[in-house]
């Protein structure tokens, strides 16, 4: 039964699960593969509903609902270690502090460093940079580096990287058991099933962002789907949370990958949803808080990422963005930049999204002016949807205050007209 399945697994310490103390964010708990199949069927029905209700609709999915989150945590750790190792090598070559895409490792020096660290001899590392035009220019950037960890190579099973804290070499990828390997493959199969249904139905699939300790794996798997399904148009959309300090680097690296490979970049930009969980976990486990220190810094990051994507739309017309925001200043910023860059609403490269029942004073004027604008509809059992809605209420406290002021003004005007005997005439 379901109760017994729930007892089969315990929440991993690294998850920051904390379901007892968190009321504002849903955390999926892996029960078994059958439950993941049920979630997939729900997502398929949502895709069908989106197709039947609007043209160019969207459907949102969460990858933690489609497999065991432990896999996402482990894979994320691998990607973070690998990227950190790249930055360490860049610092050794005097490039610390540069933007992610500006760092370029000299292959000769890199091979010497790998040999000195005891990771690989020069002969062993030589073949890493062949076969996919890597290092032909004599340098390797972050995109080249990331491509070395790929399902098509055996490198990830062999490579050891140095832990700079302990000074010891450690395996990049923890060995999966046979069952864990099957769980990973089933997650990928479910993603593939959903992407194919979305393509058939003409629905865009938005992969929601989740906690930062899952996100590197989620983004990497989403990029793999974009490479396959976004050849002719943007079907798969990744989500970037701009309250993260590394948001701009993540956006720029992924846009550059889409340029090099020629597929359509699709993204939803949000400010972020898991701040309390993120900060509590960082303090408990002992690593740097990944969240921007202030709301103003998050706003700056949002506009910086958005502006970069709008510039990309101007230059290539192969990028697409959903501005998922209830912030009026952000909407005004987007409209101004679209006008300055010559991006017309009819191109449908930029769309807007607000939650159903919120910010209609933003949604309806945008729609009437010809902009593609969407209402995000959460659905499900009340006890599962309430945490989502409570989070939105917390995030939009400023909006609620504006609504209260508007209500007070309307009430004052109502009393004024009633006392003046001019209830139906606004001209007196």
TrEMBL record:
Organism this protein belongs to: Stercorarius parasiticus (Parasitic jaeger)
Keywords assigned: Acetylation, FAD, Flavoprotein, Mitochondrion, Oxidoreductase, Proline metabolism, Transit peptide
Cofactors named for this entry: FAD
Cellular localization per UniProt: Mitochondrion matrix
Entry's EC annotation: 1.5.5.2
One GO molecular-function entry: FAD binding
Record function comment: Converts proline to delta-1-pyrroline-5-carboxylate.
Catalytic activities: L-proline + a quinone = (S)-1-pyrroline-5-carboxylate + a quinol + H(+)
Domain Proline dehydrogenase positions: 107-402
Family from the record: Belongs to the proline oxidase family.
Matches recorded under PANTHER family: PROLINE DEHYDROGENASE 1, MITOCHONDRIAL, PROLINE OXIDASE
Name this protein carries in UniProt: Proline dehydrogenase
One cellular component (GO) term of this entry: mitochondrial matrix
One GO term (biological process): L-proline catabolic process to L-glutamate
Pathway: Amino-acid degradation; L-proline degradation into L-glutamate; L-glutamate from L-proline: step 1/2
Entry superkingdom: Eukaryota
């Amino acid at each position: 039964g379901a109760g017994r399945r729930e007892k089969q697994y315990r929440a991993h310490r690294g998850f920051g699960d904390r379901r007892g103390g968190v009321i504002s964010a849903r955390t999926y708990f892996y029960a078994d593969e059958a439950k993941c199949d049920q979630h997939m069927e729900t997502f398929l029905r949502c895709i069908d509903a989106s197709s039947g209700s609007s043209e160019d609709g969207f459907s949102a999915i969460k990858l933690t609902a489609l497999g065991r989150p432990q896999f996402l945590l482990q894979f994320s750790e691998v990607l973070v270690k690998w990227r950190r190792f790249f930055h360490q090598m860049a610092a050794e070559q005097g490039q610390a502090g540069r933007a992610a895409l500006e760092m370029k490792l000299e292959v000769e020096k890199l091979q010497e460093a790998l040999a000195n660290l005891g990771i690989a001899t020069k002969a062993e590392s030589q073949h890493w940079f062949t076969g996919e035009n890597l290092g032909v220019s004599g340098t390797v950037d972050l995109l080249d580096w990331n491509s070395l960890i790929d399902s098509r190579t055996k490198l990830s099973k062999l490579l050891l990287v140095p832990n700079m804290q302990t000074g010891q070499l450690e395996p990049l990828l923890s060995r999966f058991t046979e069952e864990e390997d099957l769980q990973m493959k089933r997650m990928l199969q479910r993603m593939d099933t959903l992407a194919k249904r979305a393509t058939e139905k003409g629905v865009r699939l938005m992969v929601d962002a989740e906690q930062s300790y899952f996100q590197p794996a989620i983004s990497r798997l989403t990029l793999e789907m974009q490479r396959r399904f976004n050849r002719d148009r943007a079907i798969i959309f990744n989500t970037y949370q701009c309250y993260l300090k590394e948001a701009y680097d993540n956006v720029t690296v992924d846009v550059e990958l889409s340029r090099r490979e020629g597929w359509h970049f699709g993204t939803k930009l949000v400010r972020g949803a898991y701040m309390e969980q993120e900060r509590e976990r960082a303090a408990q486990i002992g690593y740097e808080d990944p969240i921007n220190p202030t709301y103003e810094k998050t706003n700056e990051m949002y506009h910086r990422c958005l502006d970069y994507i709008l510039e990309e739309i101007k230059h290539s017309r192969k990028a697409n963005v959903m501005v998922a925001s209830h912030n009026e200043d952000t909407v005004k910023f987007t409209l101004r930049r679209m006008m300055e860059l010559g991006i017309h609403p009819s191109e449908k490269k930029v769309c807007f999204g607000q939650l159903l029942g919120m910010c209609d004073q933003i949604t309806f004027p945008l729609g009437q002016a010809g902009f593609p604008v969407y209402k995000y509809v959460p659905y499900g059992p009340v006890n599962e949807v309430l945490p989502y809605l409570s989070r939105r209420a917390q995030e939009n406290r400023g909006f609620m205050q504006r609504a209260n002021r508007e209500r007070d003004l309307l009430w004052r005007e109502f009393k004024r007209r009633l006392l003046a005997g001019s209830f139906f005439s606004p001209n007196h």
